[in-house]
Structures are given as C-alpha cells and as structure tokens.
Amino acid sequence: MRLGYPESVKIIRVPCTGKVDALHLLRCFERGADGVLVVGCREGDCHYQSGNFRARKRVGEVGALLERIGVGGGRVRMVNLSSSDAPLFVRAAREFHEAVLAAGPNPVGRRRRPEPAPARAGAPNPPPQEAIRP
Amino acid sequence: MQGYVQMVKEGKYREALAIILEDLPLPGVLGRICPHGCETACRRAEKDEPVAIRDLKRLAADLADPREIPVPCAPPRPEAVAIVGSGPAGLSCAYHLARRGVRAVIFEALPQPGGMLRSGIPAHRLPRAVLDREIEVVTRLGVEIRTGVALGVDFGLEDLFGQGFRAVYLALGAHRGIELGIPGERGLGVRQGVDFLREVNLTGRAAVGRHVLIVGGGNVAIDVARSALRLGAPRVTILYRRTRAEMPAWEEEIRAAEEEGAAIVYLAAPQEILLEEGRVRGVRCIRMHLTEPDSSGRRRPVPVPGSEFEIDGDQVIAAIGQRPDLGALERIPGLSISRWGTVEADPVTGATGIPGVFAGGDLVTGPWVAIGAVAAGKEAAESIVRFLDGRDLAAGREPAAPGEMRHRPVPAAEPRRPRARMRELPVAARRGNFQEVELGFEEAEGRTEASRCLNCGYCCECFQCVRACLAEAVRHEERPRERRLAVGAVILAPGSRPFDPAPFADVFLYGRSPNVLTSLEFERLLSASGPTQGKLLRPSDGREPRRIAWLQCVGSRDINRSGNGYCSSVCCMYAIKDAMIAKEHAHGGLDCAVFYMDLRCFGKDYEKYLNRARDQAGVRFIPARVHSIEEVGPERALRLRWVDESGRAAAETFDLVVLSVGLQVEAATAELARRAGIDTDRYRFAVAPPFAPVATSRPGVFACGVFRGPKDIPSSVAEASAAAGLAGALLAPARFRLTPEAAPPPEGEIAGEPRIGVFVCHCGVNIAGVVDVEALAAFAAGLPGVVYTGRNLFTCSQDAQEQMKKAIAEHRLNRIVVAACSPKTHEPIFQESLVAVGLNKYLLEMANIRNQDSWVHAQAPERATAKARELVAMAVARAATLRPLREKRIAVHPRALVVGGGVAGLNAALTIAEQGYEVVVVEKEEALGGLARRLHTTIEGWEVQAYLAELIARVQGHPRIQVLTRALVVGFGGFKGNFTTELLVGPALYERKIEHGVLVLATGAVETRPEEPLYGKHPRVMTQLELGERLHGGSAGPWASVVMIQCVGSRNEKNPNCSRVCCQAAVKHAIALKRRDPDCRVWVLHRDIRTYGLLEEAYREARSLGVIFTRFEPERPPAVEERGEALAVRFRDPILDREVEVEADAVVLSAGMTPSDTEELASIVKFGRTPEGHLQEAHVKLRPVELPTEGLFICGTAHSPQLMTEAIAQGQAAASRAVTFLAQKELTLSAVTARVDAERCAACLVCVRACPYGVPRINAEGASEIDEALCHGCGICAAECPAKAIELNWYEDEQLLAKVDALMDALG
User: Fold this and answer.
1) Residue partners of B1016: CB distance under 8 A and separation at least 6
2) Given B529, B856, B1276, which is nearest A51 (Cβ)?
3) Which of residues 43-72 of A touch B (CB under 8 A)?
4) Per-residue pLDDT, A131
C-alpha cells in the first residue's frame, strides 16, 4: 500500500514479540533511543500461541521501570495488529511518533557503546535525525 | 496505430512518433497525403465516424520533430546496398536497411530527392519543409542520397555491383504520363499532367493558358487543376468521362478544387484536340452515359451517339494515368517486364529474376498509394538482409491470415461524438501561392479526437511498458506456441466468471445508473488498491453513501431471466462481508440492507458471522425480492420497491445498490470440456460420477472448483487437493523420475574476520528513484568488515545472482548483506545463491530499503537515503555477528495413521495407499463406515450402502492398509515425519505402538439428539436420519401428512452453526414422501432453506411436487403437541400472517450434526478445537485440511458438517496434503531453534512453563534440554530465561543488540 509513516521508525525483525527481552528494550533506552514500539500479532492470533501476551507483560514491566527512573513509561508501547493491516500499522507508527515527540528527548541522551567498539575507520557519521530527536 | 493514437491522447508526441518510426520514416508526409485505408477499418465507424487517424499522425509530427527521435540501429555491417530512386519505396528501404546496420546509397535522377512525393504532389498539400525534414530522418541514419544521376544514363546496373554494392533495389516509380491517344495530342499547348506537376514542383513555375482543360478524374487531375489556378490560370475545367461518384480523386480534393474555381464537366470524353495553327483552341468531346452495372459491378461509360460538343480552351493537360519509364530497364537481361509495363518481382520478397536485384513501389505495382510503396520498401529491406545473410528470402513471411484480429466489442454505452475536422486556409488566401491548405489540429482538439479511439484492439502496442520495464522483461513479439505434452492425468480447474447483469439493465439499471454496481465492482471500491484508494465513495458524485442495498440472487436461483437455476453458494457470505467492511469504512452511520430469498450461511462458522453482522454491526436483512429500481432526484439516488412476506408494498431509497452476482461457467470452458472429452450439465458444470466428487466422465481427467459446481474458497481448495491426490495416485510409479536434484557444493570453513559483501538493489526505480543508491553503496563500503559493495538494477534477477556468486568467490566473502526488499519474499532466493557457492544460508542478512524505506518515504528522498544508510549499517553490524547454522535433516517415516474409519477417513487411507505409502486406519467402533452406515440414498439417488461396502472392501483388501477396529488412541509423541502413537486395540485392550510420519484425523460426527420434549417419547417424532432409515426399511407410514422442522439442533445458542446437511435431507425426504404418495401433505418449517449449489434443483422439484415450505422466526419456533397416535404442529405462517395448526401423522426433526467427542484426543495429540468441538484448521481458506502443527491433517465432519461427497473430497484432499509430506525422503528442519547453555541452566523450569509447545525438558544432568526437531523457533523461552542460558539461533541477543547499537551509533 506504500502508506507513508515517519522515517524515525526503524524496524528490527524478530520471529515473535515473545522473543523481545526486557534487556533488549532497556538497551535501546540506554543507548539513547527516544521510543520503542513492539508490534505483535493480534491478541488470540499469535503465530506461536502466547508470545504476544508475554511481550505485553514485559512491555508493561519495562514501561513501569522507565517511569520509575524518570525516563518515562510512555516511551515503550505495544500494539497488536495483523501483518495484512497496513493502515493500522501506519496509524500506530504515527501516533507513537507524535507521542514520543511530545515526550521530548530521552533524558539518558545518546551514549557510546557500553564496551569499546572496534574502531570504525572511514565510517562517516550521517547528520542527526530531526524526526527521532524532537 | 492504436498505440500512437493513445500516445497523442496522452500528449506524448515523441512517444507517438517513436511508435510510427518503428514502421516508417515519413510520419508528417503520410500524415498528410495518405488515403488512410486504416480509417475504413476503424471500428469507431460502427458508432459514428472513424477516428481521424491520419490527422493524428500528422499532429504528432507537427508537435514533435521526428528528426529528434532516437532510432535504434543495429551495429554497422560491412555491406552496402544501392537503391535506385528516392521516392517513398526507396527511402523506406534505405531507412529499414540502416536500422539493421546495412549502409544504403540512393541514386536519384532528379536534382532533388523524394520521387513522386516531391515531383508529383504540390506544396499546398505537402509543404517542402515537411518533406525535407523527414528525408533527413533517413539521411541522419547514414543513408547517402546522390541526386542528378540516372540509371541507364549515368550508370548501369553492373556498375553498381562493380562498385561493390552487394544488392540493388529498383524503386524508380511511375513517372511517365499515359497519352490520350486522340488526334491533336502533338499540338502546342498539350502536355502531360505529371510533367506539368514536375515542372511546377521543382521550379515553382509553369506556363498556364487562359482556359486550361484537364482530362482525367484522379488526384493528378485535381493537383493539376489546383496548381494551374494557383499559377494564375483564369479558367480551369476538368473533363471526366464518368460521374462524380466514380471519380478516383478524394472527395475533399474535388471539393477544394471546386471551391478554388475549377469547373468539372462530367460524362464528357475528349475525341479530338482542336488545333489552330498547331496550337490548341479547344477540345471536341462526346457525351457519355453509364451502363447498368456489369458482372464486375462497374458501370461502363458508353458514348451517346450524336452528342458531340466542343469546349474552347488554350491548354490541354492529360492526367489519365502514369506508368514506369522503362527506358533504362528494358535492356537489362534477366529483368522481366509485365504486359502492363511494370517490372515483375516476387509479391512477398520483391526479388527479381536477377540475384541480388529487388524491385518495388510503383515500378512494380503501377501507380499506387505512397503507403504501399513504403511497405514495399520495408519488405525489400528484410529481403535484402536475408540475401546478405544467405538466408531463405521467403520463409515465414506469408501474410497473416485475416480474421486473426480479436476486437473488444464496441461498448453500447459509448456516446456518439463527431469526428474533428481540420481548419483550412481560406479560399481567398490560396490564390497565387502554394501555402498549405489543411492547417492541422490544434493540440487540444487533436487529443480530444484521439480520445475517441475505443481501444478495441486490447493492447494498443504503444510499447510504453517495454520502455518502462528496466529489466527488459516485457516482450511483445512472443507468440502463442503449440506444445505437446505426454501426461498421466489432467486436472481441469478453469473456474467461473461472475454473472453479467448488463443485458438486464431494464430491471437492475446496471450500466444505466452509475450507482448500481456489481458485487465485484463494489469490492474494488472497498479495496485500498481500487479506484478510490479504498474510500467508499458513490460513483455518481464522489460523496460517501449513507444507505446501501444489496440485491441477492442476481444471476442465481433464477430460471426466469438468467436461466441459472442453481444457487451460487458464495453470494450471501460475500454480501455480508462487504456490508461489514463498508460499515468499517464509513464515517458516521451507514445503513446496509440485504434483500434476500434465503440467507445461506452454511459453511463452518458462517452463521456466527451472520449473527455478528445482524446483531452487532446492525446490517438489516430483508426477506424480499426487489421488483423495481428507479433513479430519483438530481443525486441519482435509487428507489427500491418490493412486496414483503405479508403482501404489503414497501419502498425505500438508497444511495448505492450492489448486485450480488452469481458464478457461471464460461462458454469457452464448455469448449475446453468438449475437447477434453468430459460431460458437462446444462449449466456447463462438469458432471461427476457417483461418490467421486473430483472425477469426471473420463478416467484420468479430474475437475475441481467452481467448474464442478458453485462453491466457496475452502471447498475449492479442498477439491483442488483432492484432484491432485487422485492424479498423484495415477502418477505414483513415476514419482521423482523427472525431478532434477540440485547438488550444492560442500560448505567451506568460516574462519577469521568477517568479509562482508553488500549488494545494493535499485529495484528498477522502486528504490533508486528515491534513495541515492550510489551514495548508499559508497557509505556501505566504509562500514566495518565490508570488503565488497555492488549495485544491481534488480539484485534478484538471474544475471545479478550469477554476479553475486562470482563476487562471493572472487572476494572470498563470508557474510552477505542484501539491501533491497522484504526478506519475507526474497530471502530464500538469495539464500539459494549462497548455498550454490558453498556459503551457509544463515550468513545472509537483508536490509529492507524498499518496503520500509523508499516506498513509504518517497516524498522525502534525502531523509529516505539517510534512513537507508541506517538500515544498511544495522544489517552490516548484524551480519558480522552471524554464524553458520546446521539444519537438521531427519528421515520421514513413510506411513500414515488415520484416526476414524468413516467415509472421509477411508478415502484418505485409500488415496494415501494408492500413492504408495502404508496406512494404518484406527476405528473406535467394531465396524467401519461411521455415520454413513445410517444413510441409504443420497439426494442424487445414489445407493450409499453399496458404495460403502465397496469402499470398505477396497480398504480391507489393500496390501498397504492395515485396519484396527475397536482401537483407542492413548498416547501420541514425536515430531513431524516421526510420530509414535500408542493404541489400545480390541476387547482385550491389546497395546500397540505405531510409528508414522503423518496423522490424519477423521473423527467424524453424530446426529445431534434433539431436545424436543416429545422426541424419544412419541413414536411418530423422529429425526431425519431415522426417517431415512424408516423409508428404507418400509416402516414409514403410510402417513397423510408429515411436518418437518428445520434447525432443531442448529443455529441456536447452544450450537450457533448451521449443520449444512439438514435442508437437503428434508428436501430429499420430502420428495421421497411425495413420490411415494402424491396425496401425502408435506410441510417443511424452516428459517432459511439452504440448498446451496446444485441442490437448489431438488428444492425446486420439491416445491413443484407440492411440498409446502414455510418460514418461522427463531423467537417463535413451531410447537409440537401430542394428539393420541398422531400429532399437531402449531406455527405462525408469515404469508397468512397468523397462527396455524397442522395435524401431522409424523413430525421429523432436522437435528443437525455434532462432532464426535474429541476432548481427550485433543489433549493427547494437542490440537485446537472450536467451541462447538470441530477441529481448528491451520487456515480457514487456504489450508482447510491441515492442522497448525506440521504433519497433522483433518477431514470430514470432524472439520465441519458436510455432505458425503464433500467428506470424500476432504478425505482425498487430506491424503494429498499428507503425501506431499510423506513423499519427502528427508525433512530439513529450520536451524532457527532454541539452544540451552547447560552450564548456565539452573533448571528453574521457567522455560518448561513458557514454551507454548511443551518442548523443554529437564534432562538427567539436571539441565533444560530443547529438542531442535520439536522447537518451533519462537524464542519465548530465550526471552523468559532468567539466567540467559537460552539463545535462539539467528536471533541471538548479540545479533539483535548489534542492530540497536549500530542504529544508535549511526544516529550519533
């Protein structure tokens, strides 16, 4: 359908939202992401039966933690939709983008990698993204 | 030509010229002087007038310069060809030779090139600038024109060969006027028209008299007359011996000559040119009259005796015809001259008697139209190239047989629109000059004219698609080919076409009102890729409709108009679905009303959908047939009128009306069936033999889908599988004989640093049109670990894949990143290429820069490019962490276990066994046959017990089938291809273990026990099955009246579904009762009669036999009361609109079907069930006979209530699907499975509890163990594991986090 959504959205593929670990979500915020959206199958339609329910629980827990430490619980959200429902995905992406814009930049800020990364000779850094750093 | 007309319509003049230039180099010339025979063929003339094709060709050449259109030419060849004559034939030949790489030199006797185009046609018809420009189109391709050199004067034919020309094309034309052959022709002031025109056209001058007499009636005569007038002749008279109607000159030319002052004397033949002192003083003519048409249909002129008369005049110009000037040719040996004074040449190839010498144009045909000469030149070029190549000149060049053209019919609704006329130079402005008279179209005018083209030739061959496809995949030159294939079975699945309501426009207003749509058109309106991008808008005014009506049974259940007596089976459901979607699309309230005869929601869970539509979404269902539709008001709303069940007239107005059109088999399909030698019924459906639903009347030929009778998708898919299964049984001995096996090279060691190759795909313009791919590749080259970057127009194309393989080998790449599209669709293609060069397929990573970038951020190319960089950086980072993974290969146990020995299970068993695999059938009862043991006759009249006995005998006698009766499944384990089932068999409960590769569940159903209080108490209250048994056993009646009550155990709160079979059972038994005793009164009390498909025929028969069908409301069900031996039934009759009571000797309850109890089995085997107890298939529509767990299949009434033939088809279908599994010698399991690090495992049981499939176990060492054959690869355990002891292959934490880190690094 090629419906447009904000370029701030970058998709990381997982087999099931049930695979999305709390540690994965936290790493995103630790490294300075302003928001993480977990997109799973519709409830009751999980390809692996119950993965999306587990994800929902974890997202809730991570949200509560983020809220407690002052990052903001609204920065992590889960939506459930079917892979054929492009308009719903686009709506969710736009709404979340707006919500993150409203929440402002992640107070953690952009961080270097926790452990020293190999030297990245010759890799030019692209200009920062307007959309993801409101 | 449809192509360039379309391009003019689009305003693409250069493209129009490019299309024309494919055929000829002179668009502006022919756009003026061509007699446009093509317009005679134009089918617009059937409506009003032909499209002005010629004038549109000219418009294209007026608005774009043909010299600027690039003409693709083959690489130059060494040979050169001489062409004698630079007229249309010579120019065309030179042009087409040049395009094929052959150099041509044209020799022209006159001082300027163009032949008759220049010397014969005056400038007021063909401006010199146009001619010069288009000759330049030819010379720009390297064609040389040498003027002022004449064959036979300046050079001879042998000289040309002597100079090294390899072939010669003679195109000298016909430039010599034919003499009148009357006295006085040698006098002063008498000359030939062609000579006169040549002088005028080459010098701009010629002497004219005070009264010019022109003899002839063709275009030359007219050209002479109009030229003479322009040169100042005060009087010009044309003498013609027939009438105007016979004049060969074009009507518009004659009219123009008259307007400009020429007089025409008809029926006058000159007898003598009168001279005075050797000078012309006049002509003596004789009056002619025309004879009646002779055998050839021509009216010959004959002189009227004594009617001689004289006309004064001082100049006579003869224009009665031309012929070739043969002076230079007559003496050439080997060249033969016809008796008409033309050169003889082969009509197809243009070859003359001299090898290497070809001839064409007027020289061969005599004077003819320019387009003919152009065509001859093109054909000659083909011949000359073949001659140079030493190929056969004629092979394959026979002209296409006429009648091959297929046309779209002229649409009836097409409005009449007059043809556009060009403006002309005013008559007063034409005197004394040769300015062009016809001024051409204005651009807008021309485009409107082009839009009159009906596109009747289907594809207009504008070749825009060829140019647009960067992969050069579109090939117009492909032609149908005949192939012969030796096959062991044929499956016909030709489908159907929706009924076309257009012929019944007076009833439905379809085609007259824009707001009446077919259901398919309405679906397009709801579709995101439809004409309104999924917005629900009314076609008449683009406003959102507030009220929509659906009319059911259009072209179905209608023997009156369409003749389709059957029910199309699918329309009720799609109408409900469309109403539901329409409501979702609507902003604010939308009223949806469905006008129906019976709501036929008989499929699995369909009734629930109907309930949702009615009770939750508020779709209105009105049991009525609308009798008239009319348009009302300026908004073109539609007023529907009908009579309700109680006989009251009703009317409502809607914004939109949707016609629920039925399915019907095309006439072309009937022809296919005839050629295949199979029987079809009167509706063209394939006839199936008894109990063989996908067989046909011819063994080895199978039919499935709607061709077998109207049906929905799940049934069609099941039938397709069944047909494949039966065909597979015929082909079993030949299995794998023609299957080539790929043998990939062994995988190399992956050691040392990652060497990453990045392949950036342009995807034509899909990606490259938005993302700066060059910059992206440069960026990728600088990423850590990247040692190679490449770009491809289409990375998935075969040649790009070969390049990728080469690059992998050359640069010793060990990780591959493809920045392209979705891995969902393309990952397997790239993985295959990796495997082909010995690279593990899990070393591939894709960055989706199309679906997730260029497509969705097309409006912001710079930001899309930045995002592409981030996506590629993420992919490269993950690629560096990838490790090769080993896919486990397991052997398949080539045996099937079928649970359930009913008709479905037995058919499944037989179909598997026939394909060469062992089967074990497990039946809990003592006898095989299931529910079918209680059935005796089908609605078609087939004997069930005879069939069942034969089926059981075939199963029991089959060497590959083992039957275990009184057997119970007590244990089930293993994984796909390797299951173990534990059974308790026989009265002794003997334990057995069966190892098998697949499991087919055919556990069946039973008749529901009715809850009606009198059932089981009163001997005259029975179920339909019991009635069938009594009818068979002779214990039914005699009864004077019988009442059947439908939906007793179905469509209620306890069982919301329809049991599908009861309506046909009631109809079947009602017919049987009526046939036995026509005086027996039979009532069927129903909610909807659901005799879908061809069962409708039986319903109609029952009514014609006098069976009374009465609808009741579920809120007011019929009440049965005991009246001694007999019974009474009270119900409300909706037509009488009152309560009635009927005495009944018997009451028959249509009790419906309940699936056999599978609760325990479900917990053993672990499969899902619907709330009603039916097994839940993997996908309702696309995988109807499979369970979600691989290797498990279902069929028959365990799936849903169904007829015996349907259960047979499902049994065969399940077998077919099962065999696709069994036929694999080995199964390859995905390597994306979870793996436990035993060192870290604390045996906390979290994974054991989290796994949806119960795979992890704590082993003897006290650590969790996950069987990779059982693991589904969801990764839930890995995420849950508190010790992080579990990793999911290919989605390891490090691999996912590498992406997060790369993204955040890239964002800085």
Assistant:
1) none
2) B1276
3) 47-51, 54, 58
4) 34
Mean pLDDT of chain A: 83
Residues in B closer than 8 angstroms to A129, CB to CB, are: 863, 866, 1307
Q: Cβ contacts (< 8 Å) between A123 and chain B: which residues?
A: 782-784, 873
CATH superfamily of B500-661: FAD/NAD(P)-binding domain (3.50.50.60)
User: Which of B818, B855, B856, B1255 is the mutation pick for testing A, counting most A CBs within 10 A?
Assistant: B856
pLDDT of B103-144, one tens digit each?
999 999 999 999 999 999 999 999 999 999 999 999 999 999
- Give the gap in angstroms from C-alpha B852 to the nearest C-alpha of chain A: 8
What is the domain class of B176-323 according to CATH? Answer: alpha beta
pLDDT for residue B531: 86
What is the topology classification, in CATH, of domain B756-881?
Rossmann fold (3.40.50)
- Domain B894-1004+1156-1228 of CATH type 3.40.50.150: no
Pairing of strands B626-632, B637-643: antiparallel
Instruction: Identify whether B1038 is preceded by a cis peptide bond (ω within 30 of 0).
Output: yes
| Alpha-carbon gap: A99 to the closest alpha carbon of chain B (Å) | 20
Task: Report whether B1049 contacts B1154 (CB < 8 A).
Answer: yes
User: DSSP secondary structure string, B40-97?
Assistant: HH-GGGGTSS---HHHHHHHHHHHS-GGGS----PPP-S-EEEEE--SHHHHHHHHHH
Q: Are B239 and B285 in contact (CB under 8 A)?
A: yes
CATH class of B1008-1152: alpha beta
Residues B1054 and B1069: their CA atoms lie apart, in Å, by: 26
Q: What is the pTM (predicted TM-score) of this model? A: 0.75
Cα–Cα distance list, B115 to A86, B111, B337, B368 (Å) = 65, 10, 21, 13
Cβ proximity of B718 and B1100 under 8 Å: no
B167 in Cβ contact with B387 (< 8 Å): yes
Contacts of A23 in chain B (CB under 8 A): 1284, 1293
For residue B148, the tally of other CB atoms under 10 A from its CB is 11
Cα B779 from chain centre: 42
Whole-number pLDDT of residue A126: 38
Tokens read off for B360: 């064409």
- Topology of domain B1234-1288, per CATH? Alpha-Beta Plaits (3.30.70)
Of the candidates B1182, B517, B1215, which has an alpha carbon nearest to the alpha carbon of residue B898? B1215
Residue type, B927: A
Question: Is the dihedral angle over the CA atoms B304, B309, B312, B314 positive or is it negative?
Answer: positive
Task: Give, in order, the Cα–Cα distances in Å from B305 to each of B181, B287, B289, B312.
Answer: 20, 8, 10, 21
Interface contact A84, partner B, CB < 8 A: no
Looking at residue A128, what is its pLDDT? 35
Residues carrying CATH 3.50.50.60, chain B:
176-323, 500-661, 894-1004+1156-1228, 1008-1152
| H-assigned helices in B419-539 | 443-450, 464-468, 505-508, 519-526
CA end-to-end distance (rounded Å), chain B: 59
- The complex scores an ipTM of 0.87
Residue range B897-925: mean pLDDT, rounded: 97
Per the listing, tokens 């056993």 go with B1033
Query: Is there a contact between B625 and B638 (Cβ–Cβ < 8 Å)?
Result: no
Give the pair of three-digit tokens for residue B1210. Answer: 């499902």
Interface test with A, best of B584, B825, B1304 (most A CBs within 10 A): B1304
Cβ distance of B1232 and A15 shorter than 8 Å: yes
In the block, tokens 């679905």 appear at B577
3-state secondary structure string across B398-426: CCCCCCCCCCCCCCCCCCCCCCCCCCECC
- Chain position carrying tokens 């030509």: B1
Based on the number of CB atoms within 10 Å of its own CB, is B1159 exposed (0-12), middle (13-18) or buried (19 or more)?
A: exposed
